[in-house]
Amino acid sequence: MSRKVLLIEDEPNIAEAIRFLLTREGWHVETHAEGLDAIQVIQGANPDLVILDVMLPGKSGMEILRDLRELEGMQDLPVLMLTARGQSRDREMAENAGVSRFMTKPFSNAEVLTAVRDLHAQATRS
Amino acid sequence: MRNTLTGSRIRERRQIAGLRQAELARQVGISASYLNLIEHNRRRIGGKLLVDIANALSVEPSLLSQGIEATLISALREAAADAVGQKAEVDALEEFAGRFPGWAGVLAQMHRRVVSLERTVETLSDRLTHDPHLAASMHEVLSTAAAIRSTAAILADTQEIEPEWRDRFHRNLHQDAERLADSSKSLVAYLDDSETADDRRGVPSEDVEAFFQANDHHFPQIEAGGTGADVDLSPLESAAARTVAKAYLENYAADARAMPLGEVQKVLAEAEPDPLALAARFSVDIATVLRRLAALPEGYLGRPTGLVICDASGSILFTKSVPGFAMPRFGEACPYWPIFQALNRPLVPIRKRVVQLGRTTAEFDCYAYSWPQTVSGYDDAPVYHSVMLVRAVEEGGQDTQSVTRVGPSCRVCPNEACTSRREPSILSEGF
Q: Cβ contact (<8 Å) for A20 and B154?
C-alpha cells in the first residue's frame, strides 16, 4: 500500500508540480484547495503526511493546524507548512500551532522532497 | 521612610506660601534651627506640631504627612529601570520625589508618555508589516514564483517526462510567467499608489499635479496669450494648492511667451526636438525648453514625455508622469537619476539614456539641467532647482546609445549591491 500525502494548496500549478514530484517518489497524492472544510478532508483522507499552505480561501493554514492538533490522534500527523511569509514571528506562530516543518515560498523541489522524506522517516520511526 | 519626607513637604509648602523659615517657626512656637532640622528630614514630626504647621501653611495635615503616592514612586522606578546609558540613584528615589514633587511628576508623566508612544509605534509598525494589500500582493508574487521555480526545475531536471506532463508544465509555466509579470506590476503600482492615494490627499503639490494631469499639462487659455490668472483654479480646494498652482501657471505662461506654440510646432516639424538646439533657436535657457516640451499637447513630440522638477534638497516639487517610468515622491527617488546628477553640475545640460531596474526594459532619454533661483541679496548663494525631461525611446529604434541602469526608489529596487542604497528593498527583505 502506497504512502498517502494530502496536499492542501489553492495554487493549482504549485499543487500540480508537487503532485508530479511526489508521485514519482511513490506517494499517492490527494489535493484539496479549500481551507474551510480542510479538517474534514484530512480526517476523511487519513493521510500519512499533510502539506498545508498558509493562505487558503475560507480558513488559514494556521487555524487549520491549530484545530487539527486538538483532534484526537492528530497530534503526531506530520504537517509540512508552506508560506509566502517567512518572518520569524510567522515561523513562531506555526511552531506554536504544532507544525512539523515550515517552508517558505519560493521553495526548491529538492527542499520539498527532502522535507517530505525526513518527516515520513521520523513518523515511521516513532 | 515616608514620614521622613514630611520635612521636605513642609519646606516645599512653606516656599510656595512665601514664608521664611524664621516666620513659620515663630508662628508655631519653635526655633528656626529646629524647623530647619525638620525640613531637612532630620527630626521626626507629628502630633500637634504637625497640625500647627499645617494650619500655618493653610494645608491639610495629611498633605504634609502622607507619603508620595505609590504610583509616582512606581513610575519613577520604571523610568529608572528603562533608562538606557543613564544610572539613576534609585536609593534616593523617595527623597527626590519628596523634595521635587513637581519634577518627579513631570518625569513620571514623560515616562508614561514614552511607554504609550512606544506601544503606538509597535502597533503601527505591526500594521505596516501586515498591510493586508501588501501581504496579498506579495503572496501572489511569491506563490507564482514558487510555481515557476518548481515547474521549471521539473522540466530541467527530469530526464524522461511524459509528453502530456511536459505540455502541461509548459502551459503552466507560460501562465505563471504572465501572472508574475502582472502581479509584479500591480505590486509596484500599489507601492507607488500607496504614496499617492489617501495618505497624501490634501497635500497641495499632489492636488496641483492632479489638476495639471486633468488638463493634460496644457492650458489653451495661456497658449492664446493669456496669463495664469485666466485659468480656472476652482477645482483646487485648498488655498495652498491654488497658491502653488498659480506659481506654476505663471512659469508656464512665461515659458509659453518665450516659446510660442506655433513657432515650436514649426521647428518640431523640421527636426527631432533637441533641447540645446531649441534653447539656441528661441534664446532661452535649457530649463525653459525642458518645461516647455513637457507642456506641449499630446502628439507634438511623438512619444510619451514626462517631467520632474526638484530643488537642491532633492525634494521633488513637480512631476508629469510617463508610462513605464516610476516617479516616487518625497525624496525617495533613485539618486542615480540624471536630475540629481545635474544638481552636482549646475548649468551643464546632461543627457542620459536610462532603464529602470525592476520594471520593464523600456528605455528613456533623460535631459536634465540645474539652474539657480533668484538670489535675495548680494553675497547670497543661489539655491538651485533641477529639471528633467523623460522621453520614452522608440521601441526598435536604430540608435545604440549606452544605457544607464537606475532604480525607481530603494524600496522596490532589486539592485542589492547598490552602494547608494538607503534602505533594504522590500522585494528581498522580510518576505
A: yes
Q: Give chain B positions within 8 Å (CB) of A87.
A: 129, 430
Query: Does the beta-carbon distance from A84 to B148 stay under 8 Å?
Result: no
How many CB contacts within 8 angstroms connect chain A with chain B? 69
User: CATH assignment of B297-431?
Assistant: 3.30.450
Among B323, B319, B299, B289, which Cα is nearest to B307's? B319
CB distance A17–B154 less than 8 Å?
yes
Query: pLDDT tens for residues B291-347?
Result: 999 999 888 888 889 999 999 988 888 999 888 788 875 557 899 999 999 999 999
Q: What are phi and psi of A88, to 5 degrees?
A: -60, -35
Other beta carbons within 10 angstroms of residue B390's beta carbon come to 27
Find the CATH number of the domain harbouring A116: 3.40.50.2300
**CB atoms B138 and A109 under 8 Å:** no
Is the pTM for the entire model greater than 0.80? no
CA distance B239 to chain A (A): 45
Q: Is the CA virtual torsion A70, A74, A78, A80 positive or negative?
A: negative
Residue contact A108–B153, C-beta within 8 A: yes
Q: Is A105 part of the contact surface with chain B (CB cutoff 8 Å)?
A: yes
- Residue span of the structural domain in which A11 resides: 3-125
* Under 8 Å between Cβ of B173 and B155: yes
Distance from CA of A108 to the nearest CA of B (A): 6
CA dihedral A51, A55, A57, A58 (to 10 degrees): 90
Non-local CB neighbours of B365 within 8 Å, separated by 6+ positions: B351, B352, B353, B390, B391, B393
CATH 1.10.10.10 fits domain B3-124: no
| B147·A14 Cβ contact <8 A | yes
- For B125-181, the pLDDT digits (tens) are 555 555 666 667 777 888 888 889 889 988 888 888 888 888 989 999 988 888 888
Hey, is B99 helix, strand or coil? Answer: helix
The cell numbers describing B233, all together, are: 483654479
**From the candidates A7, A13, A31, which should be mutated to test the interface with B, based on the most B CB atoms within 10 A?**
A13
Q: Cβ separation of B154 and A18 shorter than 8 Å?
A: no
Are B413 and B358 in contact by the 8 Å Cβ rule? The answer is yes
Q: How far apart are CA B43 and CA A89, in angstroms?
A: 58
pLDDT at B400 over 80: no
- Where do the domains of chain B lie? 3-124, 132-194, 297-431
